[in-house]
Amino acid sequence: MKPMHKYLVVASGAALAIALAFAACQPQSAPQGTNAANLQDLMKARNLTEENVQAALKTYTPTGVKDEYYIFASGGHSGQVFVIGVPSMRLLRSIAVYTPEPWQGYGYGDQSNKILEQGNRDGKSLTWGDVHHPALSETGGDYDGQYLFVGDKANARVAVVDLKDFAAKQIVYTNLMRSDHGGTFVTPNTDYIIESSQYPVPLGGAYADPTKYQEQYRGVAMFWKFDRAAGRIAPEESFAMELPPYMQDLADAGKLDSDGYAFINSFNTEMSHGGISEGQPSLESGASQNDMDYLHVINWKKAAEVAKAGKTETIAGTRIIRLKTAIDEGLLYFIGEPKSPHGVDVTPDGKEIVVGGKLDTHCTVYSFEKIKALIEQKKYAGNDPFGVPILPYQDSIRGQVEIGLGPLHTQFDDKGNAYTSVFIESVVAKWSLKDLKVIEKIPAQYNVGHLVAAGGDTVHPHGKYLVSMNKWSLDRFAPVGPLLPQNFQLIDIDAPKMQLLYDMPIGIGEPHYAQMIAADKLHPITAYTPAGTDAVTGKMDPDHVVGGKEGIERRADGVHVSMTAIRSHFTPDIIRVKRGDLVHLHLTNQEQAQDATHGFAISEYNINLSLEPGKHENVDFKADRAGVFPFYCTEFCSALHLEMAGYLVVEP
Amino acid sequence: MKPMHKYLVVASGAALAIALAFAACQPQSAPQGTNAANLQDLMKARNLTEENVQAALKTYTPTGVKDEYYIFASGGHSGQVFVIGVPSMRLLRSIAVYTPEPWQGYGYGDQSNKILEQGNRDGKSLTWGDVHHPALSETGGDYDGQYLFVGDKANARVAVVDLKDFAAKQIVYTNLMRSDHGGTFVTPNTDYIIESSQYPVPLGGAYADPTKYQEQYRGVAMFWKFDRAAGRIAPEESFAMELPPYMQDLADAGKLDSDGYAFINSFNTEMSHGGISEGQPSLESGASQNDMDYLHVINWKKAAEVAKAGKTETIAGTRIIRLKTAIDEGLLYFIGEPKSPHGVDVTPDGKEIVVGGKLDTHCTVYSFEKIKALIEQKKYAGNDPFGVPILPYQDSIRGQVEIGLGPLHTQFDDKGNAYTSVFIESVVAKWSLKDLKVIEKIPAQYNVGHLVAAGGDTVHPHGKYLVSMNKWSLDRFAPVGPLLPQNFQLIDIDAPKMQLLYDMPIGIGEPHYAQMIAADKLHPITAYTPAGTDAVTGKMDPDHVVGGKEGIERRADGVHVSMTAIRSHFTPDIIRVKRGDLVHLHLTNQEQAQDATHGFAISEYNINLSLEPGKHENVDFKADRAGVFPFYCTEFCSALHLEMAGYLVVEP
Known about the structure:
- Chain A is mainly beta.
- Helices cover 12% and strands 42% of the residues of chain A.
- Chain A contains 10 helices and 46 strands.
- In chain A, strands 9, 10, 11, 12, 13, 14, 18 and 19 form an 8-stranded mixed sheet that branches. The first copy, chain A, has a 6-stranded mixed sheet with strand order 15-16-17-20-25-24. In chain A, strands 36, 37, 38, 39, 41 and 44 form a 6-stranded mixed sheet that branches.
- In chain A, α1 (14-25) packs antiparallel against α2 (36-45).
- The longest helix of chain A has 12 residues, at 14-25.
- Chain A is globular and about 80 Å long.
- In chain A, 63% of the residues are buried.
- Chains A and B meet through β1, α1, α2, α3 and β4 of A and β1, α1, α2, α3 and β4 of B.
C-alpha cells in the first residue's frame, strides 16, 4: 500500500467524511470507480445511514469468500431443508427430504423413490411433509457436522440427511402417532432422536370418537435409536412412551448435568378437542383456560433400560412403555408451566430449563438440581388425572424473567445471556441468565417465531450471530402477490448493543426452527468415488456401468440399458425398444471433476435424474406408447451441452 | 445532523481513513457500535477491499427498503420460476409452475391440480418441467408487468403466470413437438408467444426410425395466440410452421423496424441423429461438422394471415403451415450463421440481429434492412435440401465482432452497448454496437450461460445492472456436497468500468434465462377480494363459504364440508364421515388482511392447501381408512396458531 499524505478534511456529515476519506486514499491508479463523488453519491442515492454501512460491511461477502456459518433451516410445508450461509444470508441450497424435487432428481429415479416410499404410511403415497425442527447430530453436546434430522409434523415422520453429500437417506415413522411437533431433538451424543406427538389420536391408528378423547386418545414420545456407524435410525432398537392426551409441544434433551433427561412442553391440559359446530369450544379457546400446563420431565436413559428389560407392549409395530409403567418406574414427572407454554430450552450448562408461555409475559427458569432433588425426595404436589406425579412448581424453579407478551423460544450465547423471541410484542429480548433480567430488546419485523444463534442450543454457544425467524414480512420486500415470504433477520449479538444486520426473505417455504453450525465443522464430498456409486448406500451399485461396457440387453425381466454419461454424450444415444417393453435404465456419470453434474430426462416420461460426478442411478419405465422420445442432459455441462442428447425409439 | 468540527486526519490506509472519518462523525450519542475501531476492525477482520466496500454499499438494501428491479428467472429442471430482487440479489419467491410445491399448495388441491392436469400429455401425469426461457408480456416492445410465460424444454409445454398474484394459470402444449428450446419469446405486443422445437421428431407423435431422420423428422415453430383480456393462451387461434429437422435453438421476435418477423437459430444442419453404438457419430461430433448453420427468418405476421386464410393442415390437433406452403408463401428464409450458433438477439432499435456461435470467436451482426431487401429482390444464394431459400450471408450482415471463444447470448444497455456472454473464455464482453468493437471484458465465475440486463431485450433497455448467469460455481461458496449451486453475478454496468457487485448462489434449480423489470411496473394484489375467490378464475367460487353458513351435508355425490378459516380456528373443526365416503371440502379463508395466510393439511391424506387472504379452495378425497386424522393450519398465523386444528373422524 502506498504511503498516505496528511490531509485536512472539513466534513459536514458522515457520508462526506467517508467519501473524503476514500478520496484521500486514492492513489493515481485508483481502482475502477472508486472515488469520493461516487461514494458520497452512493450513500446519498441509496439513502444509507451509518448503521446501514456498518451492517453492509458486516454481511457483504466478496466473490469467492466462504461464509463462516451454515444455517440448516426447516422448510415447513415445503417439505425440504434450506441451507443458508452466514453472515451473507445467501441461500446455498435446498435439500429435498419429503417432497419430490426434480433439480435434485429426488423422486424421479429409483434410488430416491425408495427413500420417499419408506415414508408412505399405510402404503399411501405422501409427496410432501411439514418440516418443523431440524437437529444436527451431536457429540458431547456439540454439533459434529455429520448428520441432520428433521421431523414432519403433518405425517409424524423423521428423516435422516447425510451431511457428506447433503442428501436425504432415510424416512421412518411409527403408527403410534399421526402428527408430531416436538421433533427432532437429539440427545448429547445422538444416541436417540426425540419425536413427540402434537395432536393426540387413539394409539396405533384405532378409531374413537372425539367424545372419548380423555379415555382413548393419547400422546406419545418416541425415542429413535440412531446407529451412527450405519448412518441410519434403527427402528427395531427404538421405543416409545405413552403420554396423556395433552398436546405435547416442543422438546429438548438435557445435557451435562441434566444428560439422560428430556423435557417436553405441553398445552391443552384442558383436554379440549374442538367441536365448534357441536356446542363445544374451539380448541383455540378450550385449550387456553388453565393457568398452568405441564412440563414433562422424562428420564430417557432409565426409560431405555426399562424398554431393554422388556417392560413394553408392542402396538402397531412399535415397542411402547405404557403410561402406568412410566409412572411406576419413575420415568415421567410433570411440573406446572404458565400459560400455554411453547418453547423449552436447556441452558448450555445443562443446569436449567427455560420455558416461554405464549400467553404469558414471562420466561420461567427451572432448576434441574431442584427437579432432581424433588424426584429423589418424591416430593409431589399431587398427580394429574392419569396418575403422573406433579412436582411442586415453586420448588422447581429458580425464578421468572419479565420478558414481554408472548415469549416463545430461547437461545444462548457464550457470555451468559439468553435470547427469547417474543411473538406478540414482536421483539427479540436479550436477558441475563445470572440475573434473570432483560438487558435489551430489538424489534423484529414481524411476528418472530423461533430464534437461532450460532451453536445456540449446544454446550458451547458461539455468540456472534443470531437470526430472528419472523413469520410475517408485510412491507419489508418488493411485493410478490398475496403469498409473502417470511423474513429472517440477522442480528449481531457481539456488538455492545444488538444490531440488525440483514433482512432475508424466505419465499420457498415456511421455516420453523434452524440450527447454526460453524462452517469448518463440515467436510462434504465433491464427487461420488469411484464412479458407479449408489448415492444412498454409498456403495458401488451392482448395475454400475464402466466406460466401454455400455450396451442394451433384452432379458427375461425386460430391456436393460447400461449407459454412461460424460461430457458431452450419452452412450448409447439411441435406445430401441418395442411398445410395452419394461425398460431398466442403468446410468453412471463417469466424471470425477467437481461440479461436472449431468442430468438425464426423457420427454414425456416424467423421469429426471441428477447425476453428480460419479453417481450411478437406476430407473425403470414402461415404454407404453410408440413413437420417438428425445432424451437429453438437463444440467448445463459444457459448450456442447445441447448436443448431449439421444432418442428413445419405441416401435409400435 | 449535528455540525461537524474541523479535524485533522493522518491516515495510512483506506480502512483507517474510513474508520477515522467515521470516528470524527460520532457525536456523543453515537449509534450503537459505530466507532472507529469497530469499522477499521471490520474491514480488516473481514478482509474487505475498497472495491468490496463499494460493492457492499451498492447492493446492501436496509430493512424495509424495496429492491429497484425484479428478476424473473427460469428454474430449469426445478420446473419453477424464481423471483429475485435487484440490487440486493435476494430470492423473493419461487413460483410453482410445472412441479407440485406444497408451500404454495400447488398440486395439493383441486384448483391447482387442474392446471397441472392441463399439462399431462397423452393423459400421462407429468410432475416436473425444464423451464428455460421466461418472457414477460410486452406492450410496444416494453415489459408491461402483466404476465409471464415460460417454456418447458423437457415436455414442450408453455405456461402462463399472472403477475397480479404471482401464480400459474395455464399450461398448453402441441403434439407436434416433444421438446422445445426456442421458447418462450413474445412479439412486441404479446400477440403471439413463440415456441420452437429442439430435438426433431416425426410430426404428430408418429413412429419413425432415426435412419429416416431426414425424411420423417421435423422441427416446428409454434405461434401461440395470447388473449390478453382473458389472460390465457387461445390454442384454437394458434398455429405452427413446419421446419426442416435441424435442431432449432433460441428465438427472438423482431421489434420496431423488424416487427412482424421472428428469428430462430439452428444447429445440426448436418442432420446428425446420434447412433454412437451403431457406428454413427455422436450428436456432439456429428452436429459440429458444418461451418455454417441456418438462421431462420420467419415472417410471422404474414404467416398468421396465411393460417387465417386456411392454408394449413391439422395434425394431431394443431393447425400447421406445411414447409412447402411456408416456402411458396414467402414466410421462411435461411441465412448462414457460423458455427453452432446459440443465442439470437434483436437490438433495441429492431434494426439488427446478433448471433453468437458457440464454437466460434465472433458475434455476427445481421442487418434487417439488408435482409428485407434481399427478400424483396429474391436474391438467394441457393436453397437448402428442403427447398428453403437461403439469403447470401455476406450481403445480410453488417459485420462481425471479435468476442472470444464461445459467445452465446447478448443483452443491451441504454448507451448503445451490447454485452455478450462468452462461455469457454468465461467472461462477459461489453462491445459497441456502433463500432462492433469490444470495449471491455469482465471474468465470470464460472461458465456463463445467459446474461440478463435491466430491460435488456426491450426497445428501452435501462442499463444499470447486468447479471451473469453462471452455470458452475466450484469454489465460490461454502461447500454443499456434490450438487453445487449456480452463481448469479451482479455487475454494475453504469460505472466507468464494469464492476462485479455480488455473487448469488442458486441452489434450488438451474436457471437458463431471465428478464429484469423495474419494480414499479408491477402492481400485485395483497388479497383475493372478496373472500371466496377462486384464485385461478379470479371469480367467486360457486362453493365459497360465508362465515355463519358453514356445515357438513351428505349429498348423492358424497359428503360436502363447507368450512371457513379465520384466526385461529376452522369451522367446523370436527368432520365426521364414514369409511369409504367421498369428501368434498370447500374452504374459504375469511381474512382480507395482508399476509394473513392460512394453510390446511390433513395428516396422511397428502393434502395441503395454501389459503392466502380471501382465497377459496376445493379438495376432494376418499376417506378410505377408519381412524382419527388431525387437520391443522400449516402457515403460522397467530399466537394460537397451534390451536388452529381439528379432527377428521372416519368411522369404520
